[in-house]
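Quick illustration, no need to memorize.
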Amino acid sequence: MLLSSEGVLVDAVDLFACGWTEDLIRKFLGEEDGRAPVDHYANFQGKRLWRMTRVAIAERTEEFQDEFALSVARRSLTPKRVRAFLEARRMARQTMAFLVARGRAVNH
């Protein structure tokens, strides 16, 4: 997660930690809002970035919540893992609010 002139940006790793899948990303976010360079040769295109506001809006829709629930069910996740996804989503929203309020960047 990082702060840019476009707001808080998250990458696919952040989304996966919150329970998103490539299919959910494609369906609810579509094209990325930007790319960030990476420090290894295996990824020449850089990492995909999406504005956290778009992610939050998508996650609030009934359609996303239904698809997310189906995705979780298909993956046969344990209740502990589902709680971890939900906690990661909650923490991401809190971090976004903190970053915007403080105007600082956090890079990983």
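The chain has one domain: 2-102.
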